[in-house]
Amino acid sequence: MRIGIICHPTYGGSGVMATELGNFLGRQGHSIHVISNALPVRLDQLNGNINFHEVMVDAYPLFQYQPYELALASTIVEIVRKEQLEILHVHYAIPHAYAAYMAREILKDQSIFIPVITTLHGTDITLVGKKPVYKAAVCFSINHSNYVTAVSKSLKEQTESLFEIKNPIEVIPNFVNIAGYGRADRELRQSFASKNQSIICHVSNFRPVKRIMDVIKIFNKIQEEKDSILLMVGDGPDRVAAEQLVDQLDINEKVFFRGKTFDVKSMLGISDIFLLPSETESFGLSALEAMASYVPVVASRVGGLGEVVDHEINGYLENIGDIDAMSKRALELLTNESKMSIFSASSRAKAESFSMSQISETYLALYKKIIDEKK
Ligand code: GMT
Questions:
Q1: So where are the chain's domains?
Q2: What is the C-alpha end-to-end distance of the chain, expressed in Å?
Q3: Does 229 score more than 80 pLDDT?
Q4: DSSP 8-state symbol, 56
Q5: DSSP code of 92?
Q6: What is the pTM of this model?
Q7: Residues with Cβ < 8 Å from 169, sequence gap 6 or more?
């Protein structure tokens, strides 16, 4: 099959999912064409079936904002024609679903018919898409996609309650390539923490929605009771404020900001607890990746996190902003070895139920069905 994938390239679950799906299908022999404004971080460039096409935007001084959607739509048209793509899978509605709609209509004008699948990821609906300035265009492009999927039941429900959706939305959850995750070697762990120290981890794009000040405050309470360190993996707008808070709390020696280029799998592989106290989270791919690494998650009870983390079975879900409860939950595990090992095994087992091979096959079957319907 000849598949076009449109996604954001930067750190964020939607780009990671799109890229991992492309990598998997490319390894199966499908011809994958990823279209984005920069090379996505996890794209497997060594595979001959995987191709990357950069959207180039010409900076013109008349424009305060460069018209990225137009450049993207034109690039899609060009690549569909040149590579004879059969289907377009767009990840994250803004601005991809709208640009793909335009491209599909331009191609129709040239007697080329290509279906568009839109996968909704979360903030494209819950934070950004619902804003009045985008709402009409987002709703229109969802309703004019040939097929729509959402990464959790919670996101499907939120989309249906926020917009006037005429298309059915199928839930196809995010997945993890389980084989790539596990415990890392002891030497790596020892390079960060002493034998008696626990390792707490957080991975995100450090945007306000992730509430990384809560991460620092929760960790501060944990380390008062149990000697620990905190790995902050990622980067983003709240990093400076988080560093200031670490200073104020005088825990500099225990908090490591690792930046965004660091090997996430290894960081998860040496961790004991993963913190995700987000304001909203449609799914929580980083939580799933932690669980695949045998790391129980302490998170807020929001959005689709309850579809990933089973409260009191392989992690804990508490109210948004409840720093006390989250730190107590983390300590419950860090100070009880047998409970920790039960939660840890159950985390991995739950992650295995989101297996990449199975969920990618679901997408593939969907592509086939939609292409066949078009014929
Ligand atoms: O807002 C983000 O956290 C980034 C965003 C993205 O584009 O990657 O993440 C969303 O999509 C992920 C992949 O489907 C989900 O795992 C995240 O939960 C979701 N983020 C939010 O809903 C806040």
A1: 2-175+355-374, 178-352
A2: 14
A3: yes
A4: P
A5: S
A6: 0.94
A7: 120, 148, 149, 150, 156, 159, 160
CA separation for the pair 204, 38 (Å, rounded): 19
Number of the ligand 1 atom closest to the C-alpha atom of 92: 7
The reply to whether ligand 1 has any atom less than 6 angstroms from the CB of 9 is: no
Provide the Cα torsion 138, 143, 149, 151; round to 10°: 30
12 lines ligand 1 (CB under 6 A): yes
- Hey, whose CA ends up nearest to atom 1 of ligand 1? 123
CATH class of 2-175+355-374: alpha beta
For the chain, give the longest Cα–Cα distance: 68
Architecture of the 178-352 domain: 3-Layer(aba) Sandwich (3.40)
The Cβ of residue 41 has, within 10 Å, a number of other Cβ atoms equal to 15
Which tokens sit at 252? 């500099």
> For residue range 20-53, what is the model confidence (pLDDT) as tens digits?
999 999 999 999 999 999 999 889 888 999 999 9
Say how many Å lie between the CA of residue 117 and the centre of ligand 1.
18
Ligand 1 centre distance from Cα of residue 12 (Å): 6
